[in-house]
Design goal:
Elements: E1 17-18, E2 23-27, E3 32-40, E4 44-50, E5 59-66, E6 71-86, E7 97-104, H1 109-122, E8 123-124, H2 126-130
Antiparallel strand pairs: 1-8, 2-3, 2-5, 3-4, 4-7, 5-6, 6-7
């Protein structure tokens, strides 16, 4: 009989790491939160942002931008699942970072296609991150040594 891992992955879609410079903007009439995408899947994403007095509402609209590739996907309905302090940024310890996780809502066919394109073209497997393959100096195995 096979032993099960203590931590079983419950996500329906595999998370992938976006190319550096991938930005998420969560907005509503009352607030705008902008940060770097931490990971993404067909089901949702997480992004890091500098904490402010603004806090995300349960439901909002999200925009994904990757200017280096002229990629722009806007007005995606999302549900905020979590918004927690994020302490994995030693170089930015002077400010409070937060990590916001969202689930995509009912996307149009165009949005679904564009999201799939973004994931296929502009992300990489998390396994490559673990091996130290990165173009992000903050995640470099040599940073801070």
């Amino acid at each position: 009989m096979e032993e099960k891992s203590a931590l079983t992955e419950r996500r329906r879609f595999k998370r992938r790491n976006p190319l550096d410079g991938s930005v998420a903007a969560l907005n509503d009439d009352d607030y705008h939160l902008v940060g770097l995408i931490h990971d993404i899947s067909e089901g949702g994403l997480a992004f890091r942002y500098i904490a402010s007095s603004e806090t995300p509402k349960k439901s909002s609209l999200l925009t994904i931008v990757l200017t280096s590739e002229n990629f722009f996907l806007e007005q995606m309905p999302v549900t905020v699942l979590r918004d927690d302090l994020f302490s994995d940024e030693p170089a930015l310890s002077f400010s409070l970072m937060r990590k916001c996780s969202v689930r995509f809502g009912d996307l149009s066919a165009q949005q679904q296609g564009d999201l799939h394109l973004f994931i296929e073209k502009y992300t990489r497997s998390p396994a490559l991150q673990k091996e130290g393959v990165t173009d992000d100096p903050w995640n470099s195995p040599f940073f801070g040594e």
